[in-house]
């Protein structure tokens, strides 16, 4: 109830979690993004779909600051973050996962999440050993439960399966107080059972945490999103609900080669 209330209050302010105005990104003569306009509400779950090369990951890179946009402005909860470095965006509550796992294999699962929580806390430079009552440790335990990794808390990251490593990446993104998370193909390489678990994890996240998901698995993407943006050749060419996008003939032709259904 409290999570729903917080999400409602954020949405009631009228502020958008993320606003992109005419965002473009060029790599020399290559135009990767052009004229991107997007509004994502606080607590919203959005899927960004499109074929390979449509510009989806470049869009994420522009939002997170990995590549600054060539043109346009980006606002996060009303603040212009266009020129901020990635770590400043993280401090404001923006998180992101990547297509390729970036984990510390020599740490335990619990310690990995603990360090992520501590890294975005005010006392991140403290060298004291964590106690049982340590707030960051308590949060780490709670996050592991949310991503279904309770049983793996004490094992080394290197021993996790591919699917469990994906779950751990989600856990790291939940560290601190994220307000919006960008998930870059979290279902890539997962088995059918692991994909079902992923859907349950994403749908079970607190309602005040919004997210944007890039995903090639249409079934996963449409089951965890409320709104969908379709990209093609560096542009957003269509937006709608999951049902509208799934049944749109133009989307079927471009994204699925006209073979859907």
Automatic annotation (TrEMBL):
SMART domains: AAA. Keywords: ATP-binding, Nucleotide-binding, Transport. Gene3D superfamilies: P-loop containing nucleotide triphosphate hydrolases (3.40.50.300). GO terms for molecular function: ATP binding. It comes from the Bacteria. CDD domains: ABC_Mj1267_LivG_branched. This is ABC transporter ATP-binding protein. It comes from Aquibium pacificus.
């Amino acid at each position: 109830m409290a999570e729903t209330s917080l999400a409602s209050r954020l949405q009631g302010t009228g502020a958008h979690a993320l606003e992109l105005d005419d965002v473009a990104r060029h790599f020399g003569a290559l135009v990767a993004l052009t004229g991107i306009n997007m509004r994502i509400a606080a607590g919203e779950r959005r899927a960004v779909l499109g074929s390979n090369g449509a510009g989806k990951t470049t869009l994420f890179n522009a939002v997170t600051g990995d590549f600054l946009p060539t043109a346009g402005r980006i606002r996060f909860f009303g603040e212009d973050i266009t020129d901020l470095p990635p770590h400043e965006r993280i401090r404001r509550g923006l998180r992101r996962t990547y297509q390729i796992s970036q984990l510390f294999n020599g740490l335990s699962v619990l310690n990995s999440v603990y360090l992520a929580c501590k890294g975005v806390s005010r006392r991140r430079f403290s060298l004291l050993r964590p106690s049982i009552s340590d707030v960051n440790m308590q949060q780490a335990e709670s996050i592991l439960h949310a991503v279904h990794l309770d049983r793996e808390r004490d094992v080394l990251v290197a021993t996790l399966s591919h699917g469990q490593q994906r779950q751990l990446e989600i856990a790291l993104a939940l560290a601190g107080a994220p307000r919006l998370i960008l998930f870059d193909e979290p279902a890539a390489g997962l088995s059918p059972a692991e994909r079902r678990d992923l859907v349950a994890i994403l749908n079970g996240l607190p309602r005040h945490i919004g997210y944007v998901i890039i995903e090639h698995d249409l079934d996963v993407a449409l089951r965890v999103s409320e709104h969908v943006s379709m990209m093609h050749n560096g542009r957003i060419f269509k937006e709608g609900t999951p049902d509208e996008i799934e049944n749109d003939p133009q989307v079927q032709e471009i994204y699925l080669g006209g073979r859907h259904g």
